[in-house]
């Protein structure tokens, strides 16, 4: 395939991945990797390197908007970034020694898990009694603006959340994805943050986490400009368009259709990985 | 920043500057990627791609010095890689800015946390070169 044709195909695919990733909340990375590996036969190491670059672009772009609105809890974000960056680097180092087939199988499993997570109904676990001594020590409790009113919230089980973030960071470094689904579990279910805060803070952390693994990938030659260029331009454009057309309530059906497509892609990746062993 | 005579920077100001920093970083680095991409395509549009096998030893721009050398000789793919490098440094610059703002707020615990994150990333940078 010529460079020009390859660039155009990847650009279109990445645009679609960014668009769907932002509409469904899955993120562009988990979609562009199967696209590159299954449809274009790109080695998963290159696909991961390109994807991590697009994760930095989209998360920094949207974090900019959220941070300005004052919803993001910067202290929680920075505190947990210690865990995610350590995890990310460990994951990225392991990834270069890991056989592409094992990565593909693991990726498929995480993809299915993420698809299920987007379909699950969210239950708000927010609490207001400020009892956790770690949360007090690290000044993690806060408030966020909701329809003009400041809503206070308290954080629970900080060590549990930290451990989960270590795991989320490792997967992010290993697979080149934002692993937003795991980050939200750590913050929603374990630390009991309100959705708005957990989603935006997870997004805020993604940039630093991805940068930590990207540094390792760059030095290992996993970031190839020929792939990374169309991927990051396409995903960023798609995600930007997606965030503009995002209409609440109408995305439910789309989510189900999309989850099925993603599950199909995931199974194919697992199959391909197993048959290549 | 010079208006904070009585009161220091508050959280709201910090969030505003942080947001602007992130957005500027993304816009600048993506513009560089676009320019580099255009140059790369003009020179290489007919070349044949081969990404089927992972060959890290063939990668020309896997170090910062390598990228700068390529940019100096105006190679499109090096300029793309330079843009990517800028993009990677955007969230890192955000940490540096956060350290300063927590320093102004006198929240030394978070200054320390910021330095810990920077240290982790620096270690990975050196680790990456050593391999």
UniProtKB/TrEMBL annotation, chain A:
Belongs to the 4-toluene sulfonate uptake permease (TSUP) (TC 2.A.102) family. The lineage of its organism: Bacteria, Pseudomonadati, Bacteroidota, Sphingobacteriia, Sphingobacteriales. PANTHER family: MEMBRANE TRANSPORTER PROTEIN YDHB-RELATED, TRANSMEMBRANE PROTEIN YFCA. InterPro entries: TM_pro_TauE-like, TSUP. GO terms for cellular component: plasma membrane. This is Probable membrane transporter protein. The chain crosses the membrane at residues 31-57, 78-96, 102-119, 162-186, 227-247, 254-271. It is found in: Cell membrane. Coiled coil: none annotated. It is a multi-pass membrane protein. It comes from Pedobacter suwonensis. Keywords: Cell membrane, Membrane, Transmembrane, Transmembrane helix, Transport. The keyword Cell membrane applies. Pfam families: TauE.
Automatic annotation (TrEMBL), chain B:
InterPro entries: DUF1634 (IPR012861). Keywords: Membrane, Transmembrane, Transmembrane helix. The chain crosses the membrane at residues 20-42, 78-102, 108-129. The keyword Transmembrane applies. This is Uncharacterized membrane protein. It comes from Pedobacter suwonensis. The lineage of its organism: Bacteria, Pseudomonadati, Bacteroidota, Sphingobacteriia, Sphingobacteriales.
